Structure formats: C-alpha cells, structure tokens
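> forwarded from #structure-qc
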C-alpha cells in the first residue's frame, strides 16, 4: 500500500501519442494532410511510490497506449515522462538498461505473451540473461525456482520443463508475472492482467499480486475496463475518455462520489446484482467520437447529460441538452426529415421536433428503445424563442433546404462546453476536467496533482 509520505516515481506531463502522422499514398494523391489518431492527448499524471494506480475507461480511450508509453514501448509524440526524476526520452545506454530492469509490463493475454517454443524455465530466465543478472546457470536456475514458488507455481521443479500449451490460463499468467518479477523491478504496468482468465481464478491472481507488492516493494499501474477490479485493487484511479484523463483521485471517492459526468455514467453502466438496489441508467447519448477528429472543447460534451446552457437561457438544463442535440444533428446532417416523419400522422414540423429532441441513448442504456426515439416538445421546459428557432429549422428541413436549416441554428444555443477545453480543477478530494467546477474551484491545479 501507499506510504504515509509518498514520493513520485512516475510523473507524466502533457503527454500525447499520435498514430498515423505521416502522409500516406492516398493523402499524397489527394493533396491532403494526414489526420492522425490522437490515442493519448495532453495527459498529466503522477504515480507515487508504493501506489496501486488504476487507469479505467471504455475500450479505445487510450489506456493501453498510455501504459506502453510508461514502459517505453511507445515513444511520446509530445510531452515528457519522468521515471524516478529522469526523463525517459533522454536516456544513455546504461540508463536505458537500468530502466528496462526496473520497469516491467504484464500483458493482457498470457496465450500470446509467452513464446510457445520456450519452456517455463527458459521464458522466466530470459530477462536474467538479457540484463546479465546472476553468477551463472545454477544461480539463475535457483532464482527462477524461487520466483515460481513466490507466484504460486509450487513445487517449481514440476513446472520448469513445461511448455505454455501444457499449462492452464491461470498458470500461464502466473508465469508471465514471474517473468516480470525475476529482475526485481520497482514499477509494473499491468494491462488487463486477468481479463483472459476464468472468473473462478481471477480473485486468486489478484490477491497474489497484492501479496507480491508488499514482498517485492512494487508500484503498480492497473489498466482495466473492469471497474470492480479497479475498486478492489487500486489506491488511486484515473478515468480516461478519448485520450484525456478527465478525473483522478482516491479510488473510493471516484467510485462513490464521481465528479465528472462521464465517470458517473461509467459507474451507472455497471450491472447491479442486488434486485432491491436503486438502479441508475447511464445517461449518455450517441457513440464515442472518432479519435482522428475529436470534438472541440470538452470532448465529452456531445454525449453529456450536464452540458452547460449559455447565460440567459430561460429553460431547464434538460431542455437545453435536447435543444443542443437537435442543433448538432442538423449541423451534421443526421436528422433525416423522411425518417422523422415516417410513422407520423403527417409530414409536419412537430414530427421532426419530436424525433430531433429525443435523446437517442445507446440501446444497452435505454429502458425503452422505441420510446426514446421521440418526445412531445410540449412536456419540455422550452423557452418560446428557442422553440420558434427550432420550428423554423424544422420547416427548412421539410422543404429540403438543409443549408438554410443549418443557418437557423448555427449561431444559436452555444455552450462553453463546446467552445473551451476545461482545465483540471479540484473538486473535493478529486481533480477533474469539467466546466461545472470552474466557479467553485477557482484557479486550475498544477499538472499531475496527487495526494
């Protein structure tokens, strides 16, 4: 567990990783610039010695890429990563060899991370040979047996000459853990370390890793989309969305009192096993945007249930969210008047408003998928001038004049969430990148803030 007076072991400052930055054949032929994937974009993070830091988020949010940056399997496009006070992008050969020994990674799939042609002994001993550790063959063999026993593969002699195909999934992952531990590292990045294992053996592997942390004096990063694992294992947690860290803090607070609307939705989406428990639905709309072309401002704003209305908005926040979505759908040519009026009594602006103002929640988040496809505008707290603008845009859509419809809404219903990228600010015991906390929190906090 983390010490009372922790020292940073890893400091990440404004780190980005872009893929596809070079101009391909198609780009050259069409004379266009490349549009890289912004897998990690402007991340600040501090990991203290002795911590178990969790990194959570949906698939594709950049978790694994960030983990590989931490162990130097990827080089950062921008920003700096310091390990024990030293920038890892500027290491001498000696420093690089020391870094490779002190920093290890446990991968998601033990079926792929072990060489099928190498025995357990050869796989676990290989890091000792690479790092020139040990006084000779027998010394290395003794070290391998000790570590195999430590990870629960006992007696070690029974496993030394086995090949990966002869082991169970749990045994293979224990071999992968032993291979990471054999060089006595200080810092281990664990990328979904139990996701490929049977549920019945996951708890045993996780408990083993907790025991090994105390025995070997380790600092862990756990990367996972399994929020129950994050809650069980981690002292602190960072939540990622579309390449950004949008909230971080003590795990118990992030889980029980999330500050960012995305974090709240993420935990609301976790199934509740107690049938008597109050059930919250994950109130997000649409799908994750393209990481090649992320939204301006707060990247979560197109899906956010708490998007901030402009000053002077006279209706409810819920009404503004629906109006803002209507505007976005018009501007993106995503509101088809034929589809909107397909089952309506007549081709009218009412039918378009009913469809355009509905919150199209992902099917897995909606209690009634069909009912979520339309809503009566009269039940919303819509200001009269806003409804008038929407009706004029709907009329232009019915006429087939899509450019005129866009012109009606283009400069209306603006939110700070779409204009400005929120700075990281304190919110209770957490820090979060959300405009909701700007007035109460004051000045932005320093990058990578940590307790």
């Amino acid at each position: 567990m983390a010490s009372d007076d922790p020292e940073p072991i890893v400091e990440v400052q404004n780190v980005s990783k872009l893929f596809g930055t070079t101009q391909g054949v198609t780009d050259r032929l069409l004379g266009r610039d490349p549009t890289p994937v912004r897998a990690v974009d402007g991340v600040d993070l501090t990991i203290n010695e002795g911590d178990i830091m969790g990194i959570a988020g949906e698939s594709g949010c950049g978790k694994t890429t960030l983990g590989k940056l931490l162990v130097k399997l990827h080089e950062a496009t921008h920003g700096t990563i310091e390990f024990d006070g030293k920038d890892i992008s500027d290491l001498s050969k000696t420093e690089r060899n020391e870094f490779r020994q002190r920093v290890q990674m446990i991968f998601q799939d033990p079926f792929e991370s072990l060489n099928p042609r190498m025995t357990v002994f050869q796989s676990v001993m290989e890091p000792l040979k690479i790092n020139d550790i040990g006084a000779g063959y027998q010394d290395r063999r003794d070290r391998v047996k000790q570590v195999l026993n430590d990870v629960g593969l006992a007696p070690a002699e029974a496993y030394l000459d086995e090949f990966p195909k002869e082991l169970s999934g749990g045994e293979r992952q224990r071999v992968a853990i032993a291979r990471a531990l054999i060089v006595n590292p200080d810092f281990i990045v664990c990328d979904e370390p139990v996701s490929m294992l049977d549920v019945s053996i996951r708890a045993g592997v996780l408990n083993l890793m907790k025991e090994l942390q105390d025995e070997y004096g380790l600092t862990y990063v756990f990367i996972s989309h399994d929020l129950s694992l994050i809650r069980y294992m981690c002292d602190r947690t960072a939540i990622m969305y579309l390449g950004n860290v949008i909230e971080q803090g003590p795990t118990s607070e992030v889980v029980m009192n999330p500050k960012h609307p995305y974090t709240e939705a993420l935990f609301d989406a976790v199934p509740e096993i107690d049938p008597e428990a109050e059930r919250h639905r994950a109130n997000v709309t649409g799908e994750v945007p393209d990481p090649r072309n992320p939204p301006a401002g707060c990247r979560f704003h197109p899906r956010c249930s708490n998007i901030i209305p402009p000053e002077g908005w006279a209706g409810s926040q819920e009404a503004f969210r629906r109006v803002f979505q209507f505007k976005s759908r018009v501007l993106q040519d995503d509101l088809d008047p034929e589809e909107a009026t397909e089952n309506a009594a007549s081709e009218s602006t009412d039918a378009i408003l009913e469809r355009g103002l509905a919150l199209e929640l992902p099917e897995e988040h909606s209690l009634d998928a069909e009912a979520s496809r339309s809503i009566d505008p009269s039940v919303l707290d819509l200001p009269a001038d806003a409804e008038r603008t929407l009706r004029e845009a709907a009329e232009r859509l019915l006429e087939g004049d899509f450019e005129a419809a866009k012109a009606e809404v283009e400069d209306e219903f603006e939110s700070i969430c779409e204009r400005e990228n929120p700075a990281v600010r304190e919110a209770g015991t957490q820090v979060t990148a959300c405009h909701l906390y700007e007035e109460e929190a004051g000045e932005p906090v320093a990058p990578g803030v940590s307790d």
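QC bot note: Residues 364-371, 446-451 have pLDDT under 50 and may be disordered. The longest strand covers residues 8-19.
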